[in-house]
Amino acid sequence: MATGSDRVAVELCKGINGLDKVVLRESRGSSVEVYLYGGQVTSWKNDHGEELLFVSSKAIFKPPKAIRGGIPICFPQFGSHGGLEQHGFARNRVWSIDTDPPPFPTVSSNKAFIDLILKPTEEDMKIWPHSFEFRLRVALGPGGDLMLTSRIRNTNADGKPFSFTFAYHTYFSVSDISEVRVEGLETLDYLDNLQSKERFTEQGDAITFESEIDKIYLSTPTKIAILDHEKKRTFVLRKDGLPDAVVWNPWDRKAKAMADFGDDEYKHMLCVEAAAVEKPITLKPGEEWRGRLELSAVPSSYCSGQLDPRKVLLSS
Ligand SMILES: O=P(O)(O)OC[C@H]1O[C@H](O)[C@H](O)[C@@H](O)[C@@H]1O
């Protein structure tokens, strides 16, 4: 678990209900927590110690229920787009620490990181008859950026390809959902999960929220921004290998129906999920797919229509 630098720290410890978790710390004070259960990031704090991700106060940290919040991994199926359980099984399996991952092309020496791996058990192969290696690297950059890289390899010995859909189901913490806008998805086509996955085209304005939303935006740009006016904070997502973006907020009625979600918590969260849903990824034996998500949180004093995420980043 060495990180190559003494300015960063990686610690394996016990989390809620004795579940194993890994804590990454960066010298300026930012941190990340990852549970081996689900391979799930449950905390991302900036260098002021402020939590940037939402985890429900009612989240159940106990198998087989997935943890409500943070960044669940949806694999090998997103949502109900297939015959498996909702969002697949990766989010409620116990992952292992990968002590000898294949090298990455880029140098990670200035980052705190942890490598996890998920391989199917015999039981898993009864519900999804494929052999795979899913490697997840969670890294915390020197500026507090959070980076997730998934590498999924088909290790089938029977010569068979497999197809999957995928999402980093990220729950962002926001001050007040009615003060939030999302930029980068305007004018795009989307599938509306609230209208039998029918296809529509989004209007020209940035997306704001005043009721339940559950949309899969298709072929999105690699950068998406979430602007939180009240907090004066902008989240910038950069993604690679993940063409789609799911936007979800359950609003009041669905919030009440979820046992592991507080009645009013919908006001303080927004899911914007880098995903590959519309066109499943197909891998032949020996092939590997890579999907990457990079998250930054930057202070913003934002005026409508002026967002250029690069400028926001550079001016911070
Ligand atoms: O309750 P979960 O299984 O965690 O799913 C929570 C939500 O995830 C995604 O955002 C889907 O698009 C929603 O339809 C779903 O309600």
From TrEMBL:
Q: Which reaction does it catalyse?
A: alpha-D-glucose 6-phosphate = beta-D-glucose 6-phosphate
Q: Please name the InterPro entries in this protein's record.
A: Aldose_1/G6P_1-epimerase, G6P_1-epimerase, Gal_mutarotase_sf_dom, GH-type_carb-bd
* The keyword Isomerase appears for this protein: yes
Q: Where is the signal peptide?
A: none
User: Which EC class is the enzyme in?
Assistant: isomerase
| SUPFAM superfamilies reported for this sequence | Galactose mutarotase-like
Domain of life where this protein originates: Eukaryota
Is the keyword RNA-binding in the record? Answer: no
EC number of the protein: 5.1.3.15
UniProt entry keywords in alphabetical sequence: Isomerase
Family membership: Belongs to the glucose-6-phosphate 1-epimerase family.
Q: Please report the name of this protein according to its UniProt entry.
A: glucose-6-phosphate 1-epimerase
What is the originating organism of this protein? Hevea brasiliensis (Para rubber tree)
